[in-house]
What does this fold into?
Amino acid sequence: MVSNSNHKVLVTGGGGFLGSAIVRLLIRKADHPISFSRSHYPALNKLGVEQIQGDLCNEKAILKACEGVQTVYHVAAKPGIWGRYEMFYKTNVVGTRNVVNACKINGVKRLIYTSSPSVVFNGKDMKGVDESAPYPANYNTHYPKTKAIAEQFVVKQANNGLAVIVLRPHLIWGPGDNHLVPRILEKAHRLKQIGDGSNLVDTIYIDNAAQAHVLAAEKLAKHPELSGRIYFISQDEPVFLWQMVNAILKAGGKPPVKGRICPCLAKKIGFCCEILYKLLRLKSEPPMTRFVAEELATSHWFDISAAKRDLGYTPTVSTAQGLERLTKWVQDNLKS
It folds into this structure.
């Protein structure tokens, strides 16, 4: 249950996968978390969490939600690889600006912003890169583009009356996952390996991601000079992407991926799918896009030395331990 602490904390998207994990951790630390989401979540009710229903694009709603709050974790976002640009821009950019403005008006001391490593993904291998990696000139999908715009806006606030830290978790997974794991299991019968399978990627277990966010707020309170910093966070043990996919499939009682196509062909198929879906104005997600082809065929893992040094972050749950927990959860909840 929520404590009677006067340290009020707002979590946007508090009922989501990452948001709810942060909320649960804050409760254990005796803080007073408040969730701001478009929906109402019975699971948060059971925890005694105060819930405010609203849209990030409603300036008045988020302004009122930030009243009396000391720290904001801005986790909510519009994810995905397909859809109209305006949809992503409205939530990821306009919504973030509204959160920042609400923080300033209400005198919120700290803002922890959840970004994504995809904001610097250029379609090529990224091996051990750090936070100095530049933003690419072009993006093949709207999510990373709008998150990059929002991220840069948030960082600029560091010298404008609000202490901020930006975190870039990569491929969050674990029990309760409502995106990555169900998506892989749903597409199990038609998945094809793209490339030779040698590409390494970073992931992060849900509890570790939540821990990093809370650590960031705690360190920012003690060391305001960290304001404006960006940090990659991960398991700190890159895995072969297709081995990880097969591990998730195994957890769900599914057979491993069979068949392989070359990255160039996958990207061409993705381009054709994008054109076709745009011409036909189809709202459903294409079976392949250029962005997905690039993500599944390249290495993308990151140097988290800065997070270790400044935030004291080290993963407390290993990938092996996380997979054991995931397997039990999938078998209890998703396996069919």
Notes: The mean pLDDT is 94. Residues 188 and 254 are 7 Å apart (CA to CA). Residues 85-106 form the longest helix (22 residues). The domain at 8-333 is CATH 3.40.50.720 (Rossmann fold).
